[in-house]
Structure formats: structure tokens, C-alpha cells
From TrEMBL, chain A:
GO terms for molecular function: glycerol-3-phosphate dehydrogenase (quinone) activity. It comes from the Archaea. This is Glycerol-3-phosphate dehydrogenase subunit GlpB. It is an enzyme of class 1 (oxidoreductase). Its EC number is 1.1.5.3. Residues 7-434 form the FAD-dependent oxidoreductase 2 FAD-binding domain. It holds the Pfam family FAD_binding_2. InterPro entries: FAD-dep_OxRdtase_2_FAD-bd, FAD-oxidoreductase_2, FAD/NAD-bd_sf, G3P_DH_GlpB_su. The keyword Cytoplasm does not apply. Gene3D superfamilies: FAD/NAD(P)-binding domain. Keywords: Flavoprotein, FMN, Oxidoreductase.
UniProtKB/TrEMBL annotation, chain B:
This is Glycerol-3-phosphate dehydrogenase. It comes from Halohasta litorea. It is found in: Cell membrane. One of its GO terms (molecular function) is glycerol-3-phosphate dehydrogenase (quinone) activity. Residues 414-433, 533-563 are annotated as: Disordered. It is a peripheral membrane protein.
Amino acid sequence: MAIESEVLVVGGGLAGITSAIAAAREGADVRLVCHKRTSLRQASGLIDGLGYVPSRTDTAASETITQRRKDFRTVRSSRSEYTGPLVTPFTEIEALPPTHPYSILGEDALREGLALFDEMTGEMYLGSHTEKNALVPTFGGTVKPTARYPRAVAAGLASDSRPMTIIGVRSFTEFDARQVADSLELAGVPFDVTGAEVEFAEAFGADAKITRVAKALDHDEPIDGTPARQALVEAVEPHLGDAERVGFPALLGDDHTTEVRADLGDRLGVDVFEIPMGPPSLLGLRLEDRLYDALDAEGVRFETGNPVVGYETSEDDPNRIESVWVDHKGREVPYSAEQFVLATGGFVGKGLDSDRQRVQEPVFDCHVPQPADRYDWFVDDAFGDHPYARFGVRPNESMQPLDAAGEPEFANLYAAGSVVGGADIAREKSASGVSLATGVVAGRMAADPVDEPSPRAE
Amino acid sequence: MTHTVVVIGGGATGTGTARDLAMRGFDVTLVERGNLTEGTTGRTHGHLHSGGRYAVSDQESAIDCMEENRILHRIAGHCIEDTGGLFVQLEGDSDEYFQQKLEGCAECDIPTEVISGEEARRQEPHLTKRVERAIRVPDGAIDPFRLCVANAADAVDHGATVETHAEVVDLRVEDDQVTGVEIERQGPNYLGEGCEGQTETIDADYVVSATGAWASQIAEMADIDLEMAISKGAMVVTNVRQIDTVINRCLPKGEGDTIIPHETTVLLGANDDPVEDPDDYPEEQWEVDMMIDIASEMVPIVSEARMIRAYWGVRPLYDPNPDSTKDSGDVTRNYFVLDHAERDGIGGFSSIVGGKLTTYREMAESAADHVCEVLGVDADCRTHEEPLPGSSDISVLEDRMDDFGLRSPIARRSTQRLGDRAPEVLDTDEPNPTVCECEAVTRAEIQDAIDDVGADPNGIRLRTRASMGNCQGGFCSHRISAEIYPKHDAVTARDALDQLYQERWKGQRHTLWGRQLSQAMLNHLLHATTMNHDADPAVGGPSVDYTAFDGGRAEPIEGRHGD
């Protein structure tokens, strides 16, 4: 017996959840399946819309890869320039290449995606009060533009002129707070900034997990006899100086983070904020929890832990997918649906796979445009314009993945998120925006396939 | 009177020669244009040869290899892993050549044992079922970085000066006699002295060029015509150690058919193709593919392994009889001390060329002997007797792991790397977290390396292996930068990050498929999305009009003080 739904979403990241909720709101009966929960533990938790656009000049033809020594400064200074940081994510969309999902869908899709995100996350995120991007300090000592940010990072915005102190924890290695402060100063931020490395939670051992420390703060557990929050306050106080706001690596609690932040702020007499971190990212994990609550609230059934391993087309129409096969510990169970959304992620989420010969989309083998020669997948500069960063399926304006001839691969398949190509989400700072824009369109089209796509914004 | 000698080249031969001369009482200055090991030494296969490879075609080299192999076990135990080696004969491989190999080894005093295919597969279960029999030889793996650093450190202990990032831009020649070298600094040396662009002249009674593949360029500075027969070879690095023995194919024409276990990885390589310029030659896709395909014939599982990077090296070969050599694979692996007084009429200068990493010490000894002879100094070589720093028994140190409060795998690997220096490096009152998780390198080791090499991230990498694992610096290059910061300023630490990230990319891009492509994307997201390193206004990124952006909400933010 096949498990049935009207819309089946494959993939449980930001794009999959967005498309499932978008489809459910159109009245569809939606089910979501995914293998691993999400890659949000690797994401900063910021919701980027569009922060930079590639320069309009043609990029230099790729050079032969040789042994020739190149100074990193030469590489850095000859990097093709991106325009930005953009004050708003909407004004430069027309500067993007025509194959970019924003170019295909138009800026309204991004607006709708962000609006849906605001509804899904409620009070947890800020930024919807303005069209402008916010500049958030990064743990790399620079600032980056983003469209939405967790309330936890709000007091750290770089356009705010209040003096700032950044706190690092000696037994953590991700950054040195004094270096971050010096680097922000070099970046020309409009406020005074100092940094301090403090002794905190060393009793947990040198390689304590950040999540372990967060739990200790959640429950104000004693560390070496002193309650965790008090211990942190005592460590930080001597370094405050004139600062009116103080930033920590994102480890200030998990389930009770709002309370931890407020409590620390009260005791220190300053605003407290968190700096988004790499994996394991607490800001990403907190967002993941919130999104799954939203999915639940919309009545979407979801299951995680089982991969989709194949599909079957309809007997009378090879152009229609009838069901996908989900591997339940070695037993393959068919999940049938009217419409399918592919939101399996990019190379990180394993929605794209590759070997020495080619890049492919492993579930439906959708066409992924790519240079034939593997050595044309990348360029010399580690931060250059890498073709691989833009790999993915190519969609039409309904988010149907297209085959090599430009026709939809299947009549009832839509794609969303990083499995979609055309964007270098890392350099553009557009990762979440692309997931939201493509997710909202794919979900809506899947729920109501006869609906005409919204006209492209000119 | 003490004679001054300048040794050019900071590879194994150069540091070995500097050590040897310093031990014999010379006033030695070693100059290297980049880091120690930056040339061929840092780009070898790390194969401690038994000589078996050359036992048929190049017996002189084979004999040298075996002799030096024995000596290195005595003086540099902490740089060697005694893996043993196999020459495997697969179905269809020549019986006659197998026999020749055995006899050749006997003639060169290389101990061998013939084992059945079955036994070979018991020793190395991933060997192909097509293996018919194998010859056991005392091959091993050698860490060229540790070896080179130990030689340089010992040279310094014997009074030598080591100038890194000091490129020789000219040889001073007066009346057909080389009297010194002119250097241009490429950056501060490892002690942080000097700065980029500075030029200096170093006087010398004698100059030894131990520049290997670059010997032509140095000789040309004295108008000497020295033609090298250099050739490139690609090596591909896997992320798993599927074999524990050095595997060679028992075939007459060996190209790309050696698999060597190193720490947590396996190295496949290497082809042998002539190149013109050691600094500028193509790194090609077919080479990477060929290494994987040939290795997979012997160990099929290799084709499924995750490849984390590829790198190329140039062999410093010299062909005394170029007219009779057909193929670059046939050029002798023997070494030559070329006295330019005798050969070219330019005194005070010789070049040591050819040879193998395994024979570096003997090469250094010959070069030093030659210097003694020319300058009329009577002093014996002691490098084959005196162990290198850090080489005493490391098992003693492993018992002391608990002293440093380290979990065992990390501590074991640290002590393996550090040898008898482990106590002094790891004994710290500060927290000692892991900085590089792939290779289990702790802060104390990184700090120790920074004390040695300054803000040079590649120097730190070579000493500690930090950033050499799966993530290829994605998760640790910024951490290493943060470790550099307290002793150097933010600009220097930021530059170190870029330098390391770009250097890691250089090798990683050659294996950009499968899981390594996923890793590259994850690194790209962490560094460009989360940290915004690609558009950093502090290092030439676009400048920012801060006031134009969202300044936060007008109404009070929850959690803000005073709410």
C-alpha cells in the first residue's frame, strides 16, 4: 500500500519547509520526507536576501592550472569585484545573470518568501520593519549584509554607533575576540570596539561542545561551584569599559536563550547579543526547532531519517512521477502523490552528487548544466567565481526543473533551494533568500499546478 | 680561522648539508627563498626507499638507498614509519622481471622475502585478488617536514644561521671566484627579522647550491651552464588509510604505481614527465586520473576513497649522459657534486644535484666532504652517528600522556609528532583545546610552531599537520589565524588566513568531486557566507557606508537593558 498525499516534499531544509507550508496554505494535503533533518546546524541562522551582485564585466578566461607560485595578495587584489554590500536586497536583482533564480522568478518571489518566513518565525526574527539590509558583525571580524536576523543578534548591528565589547572564551578556538575587535575597526565600523578573552567553563574541559555550555547557561548549572551565568558575568565585568553592548559567540543558551540573554544584560547593565557561528550553529539549530513547530502548526505530516532512493513514473505517462521509493531500513516503501517538490539541497545537503566524470542530481537525475571538463568546474582563486558554486538544476518560472532541451523533466516535479543552480549563494549572501523565494513558488505551484506563474517583474 | 659557507636551499639536502658543515665547525648560513621544504622536499611521496625500486635498473642508487635507510633508522626514528614494502606481481605481470628484481635486491644487499598472493592479502586485505605473489622489502614512510626541520634545528644548535624567505637573486663573482650571495627578502625570516624587499649581501668563502631542480637558475647567476633533467610527478592524497604497507607494482616501467601510507592518509603516485621550468608547469587532470586508475589496479578500494587533494613535485635529476637516455624515467637517481671550479672555471662554488630524499644525508656528507677538501679543512662527518633532535624513544613519552591531560589519540599523535620535545611543548597551564580537529593538533603545538616560524601559516602547517586533513583548512584556517593573533597584529593574522586558505585550495581543487566537492562547498559557505571573508572591507573589499543600513528597530528590543 502506497503512502499518499497531494504534495510530497522531498527534503527538510529551509526550502523544503517553506514549500511545504506554502503548499499547505493553498489548501493542499502535504507530506514531507527527508533523510537528515536539515543542514541548518551548519547555517549561521541569518536570513540573507541579497548582499552582493557580480560585476557586470566579463570574468577573465580561466587560466591553465599550473605550479606557478602566486602571492595570496595578488590573488586577493585581482578577485573579480562584486558590487555591495547592497543597502537593500531588491534593487540590484536585474544585475544578476539571467539564469539566477531571482532573475527567473522576479523580486516579488523574494518578498513573498521573506514574508512567509516572517510568519513562520514570528517574534524570533527582526528586519521586516525595513527594506534595508542589516550589517551583522561576523566571527571572522568583518560585517555582512542580511535581510532578517535573529533577535539575539539585534544589539550587535554595525550601523548602531554605541560602543561595543566582544567576548571570547579562552578554551574555544573559533576566534580571538581581540582580533575580531581589531578587524572590525579596520573595516571602519562607526563605533568603538574592544575585545577580551575570558576564562569561562574551563571545568568542562578544553574541547567541551558549545551545546554543552549552552545547556549549562540554560539551567544556570553550577560550574566549579558558581552558577554558570554568574560565572560568566564575573568573567566579563572587568572588561566592559565604556561599552553599551557586549557580544558573545552564539552559545547563550538553547531552549531558554531569551531568558539567558536578558538575565546577562540585566546583571551586566548592557545590551547583550550573539555573534553567528559555524557548525554546530546554535542560531541555526534554534531556527530549525522553530521551523519544525511551524510545519506542525500547518498540519504538514513529516518524517525524517529515511532517504528517497528512487521513483516510478505513471504507466500511461512517462512524464509524470507516480511515486518515490523511501528506504525504511532496507525496505523500500512507495510514497505516491499528485505533485512532488525536490528540495534535497546542494552539494552539502547531498541533493547534488558528483564523481570524477560528472555532477548529477541523484533522486530524479534531473539535468544539471555543467562543463564537460572537471577542471572547468573551478577557478584559481579560492574565493573566485567558481562554476561549481552555481551548479544545480535549471528551473523555469514555475520552478519545474528543465531537461537539456529546456523542457520540464516531469510534468509534476518542482524544485526549491540549493538543488537549484544559477546562484553563488555564498558570495552573493543570498542563501536563505534563494531557498525562500524558490520554496514559496515551488510550493504554491505544486499545490495549484494550473495556476499561471506570477508575471516576471521587469 | 673559521670558514664561512653559504648553503642555498632549505630542502632535505640543504638543511642536511648545513647541519653537516656546522657540526664540522664551519660558520654556516642557509638561505631559502620560501619556507623550509618549500621546493621538492615538501612535495615528495615520503617514500623511505629500500632501494628495491632501483635494484634492476639503477643499482648504484639502490645500494645508497639501503645504506641510508639503515642510518636514518638510527638518527631519525621519529620521522620514519616502518611500514615495510611489497612489490606485488599481478596476473599477467612478468615472472622474469620478478626474478630479476629478487636477484637485483640480493646484489644490492636489500633483504627480501617472497610471499604468496594469499599471504600478501592476509597482510593487506584490500590488495586485489589478482595478486599472485609479492616481494617483501624494508620500504617505509618518511615525514620530510619533520626530517628537514630536525636537520635545520640541529644546524642552528651547532651555530648555523637559517634565513627563510630569503631568495638568492645573484651570486657575487670576483675574478672567477664566487665570494658571496645577494639575497632579497620575500618577507620576515622565521624569527620575524627583516621585511619584504630588503636586499643583503652575505659573504662566503664557499657557496653550495643545494637547490635541486632549481640548480640551473642559481648556476646561471655565475654564467654557468648547468642543464638539469627535471621531471614532474603528481601525487594524490586519500582521506583514509586503507593500507599499512608501501605497495609497489613489480613491473619494469614503474610510473604512478606506488601507494604509501602516511599518518591518516594514503599517497598515490607518481608519474614521471619532463618539464622545463620547476616553477611553472601544468598540473593536469589526466595525471590525477592516472594515479587513481593505476593504484586501483593494485588496491581496487582506492577508487572509492575520498581524495582530499593532489600535489606535484619536481625531481631534481641530473643526467651526466643525456645523449644515451631515452626516457625521463631512465634518468639515474644517482647524485653528483659538481665542482664549478673544475667544470666551469668558477671557484668557491659547487652544486649538489640528483639523488633521492632517502639519500639526502649521504648527499650532504659528500657536499661537506668536498667543501673540506677545497678549503683544506680536516674534519670528519658525524651526521650518521649523532641522532637528530627529537629522535629518542617515543614510547617513553606515550606513558606521559596523562601528564598533559590530553585524551589518548590526540596525545599519542602529538607525542609522535614532537618526539622527545613533547613535555616542553605540551606542558601548559592554559587550556589546550584542539585547533585542527582532522589532524588532532592542539593549541600548545600551534603556539610552539608559531614561536618557531612566526606568522607563517605554511610553516605552522608543515610542523604540525594542522589543516592537512579532510576539511583542508575550511574549519581551522581561521582558528590558526586566531592563534597567530596574540603574538602578531590583526593584519598579519588576517593575511595568514588568506595565505593558508589559498594554499589549501591549490591542492584541493584537483580532487574536486564527490565528498571533497561537498567539503569545498561547505568551506565556501562557512568562509564566504558566515564570515564574509571574500568581501572583507579591511583587506580591499568594497568600503561600506554603515549609516545607510538597518540601524535596528526604533522601538526597544526585548532583552535590552533597562526594558
